Amino acid sequence: MSQLWYPSGRSPLKRRKFLQYGAIAAGTGLVAACASQAPTSTEAPASPAAGASPASGELTKITYGTNWYAQAEHGGFYQAVATGLYKDAGLDVTISMGGPQVNGTQLLMGGAIDFFMGYAADAIKAVEEGIPKVTVAAIFQKDPQILMAHPGTADSLEDLKGRPIFVSSSANVTYWPFLRAKFGFTDDQKRPYNFNPGPFLQDKQTAQQGYLSSEPLAIKKEGGFDPVVFLIADYGYEPYSTTIECKRELVESNPDLVQRFVDASIKGWYSYLYGDPSPGNELIKKDNPEMTDEQIAYGIEKMKEYGIVDSGDAQVKGIGAMTEERWKSFYDTMAAEGVFKPETDYTQAYTLQFVNKGPDAYKV
Question: For residues 223-240, b (16+ Cβ closer than 10 Å) or e, as one string?
Fold first, then answer.
């Protein structure tokens, strides 16, 4: 397995175990030990002093914790740092990288970071566990989770019904209940996936889980072919991803600061996707020296091709958009499959007050 750009010899496949599923598989992951903070993209240290409005001419120090090592999927945030968009909003933002042992929810609740890169399912789980965090924007309109098949063996996601599929155990509380409910997938199709593509490469009749901007490139490098990619979001799997979360207390006590951070972050994403992304990319590579230009370019290409950031509601309401309907649909689907409790007030997981202003609101 080629190692691509991941630190400490971790493969991009292992990365996904933690990125999309780790927190959910352990509830909100509060049982995990809090690890030391990873290197950040600015000189500013983490600061919990976000509750106060900046004095005239001063910048308010903010720390945004990501869910993994720096990469193209975090590019808009790095772009906002690199191009001064956060400073224009009166903010001195430090991006604190996540990793396999960095528990973002724990750091957020403990005040070590002010905002965190979250995920819709984990936000609803937090409500069930009484953790007072709230989602204030959703950068990814589509979850980049995919299933992959060998060329010529499947034309649609439905074609994978009844066939062996290599999935992680955490799929049981993320996308697998959706596939079971909508397409009739059965549990006897599942094969253990230990983040090694070998079994998939050896058997053309199997499929494998993956992440849109990483695994297909890894398979091409190792297997010498482009896999057939099925983005599960395009088949009705609706969780928001790469969200912005903060404490509910901050939303209530200083909504102006939350608004400035959200607005500047969204502007950073427009700049990264439709302008020159090189300023953000340089900071990404500074934080994560093992990141390659090839992987960054591939990530940007796939985000654009599949409309991960700017599609659907975001095209009308602006990047970061969220709707009541999307949250309800996702909750209803997963609650019907037993992932969420039927009595959960999922509306406590988010607020729409900081988004849906339309693309013109974020022109630089």
Answer: eeeebbbbbbbebebbbb
Measured CA to CA, the distance from residue 123 to residue 346 in angstroms comes to 9
Three-class HEC string of 89-110: CCEEEEEECCCCCCCHHHHHHH
Torsion 119-120-125-128 (CA) sign: positive
The residues, ordered by sequence, that sit 6+ positions from 321 with a Cβ below 8 Å of its Cβ are: 138, 141, 312, 313, 314, 355, 356
Token pair 């406590």: residue:
348
Dmax (CA) of the chain: 64
Contact between 148 and 219 under an 8 Å Cβ cutoff? The reply is yes
pTM of the model: 0.84
pLDDT in tens, 52-104: 445 557 999 999 999 989 999 999 999 999 999 999 999 999 999 998 888 99
With CA atoms as reference, report the closest residue to 187 among 164, 208, 206.
164
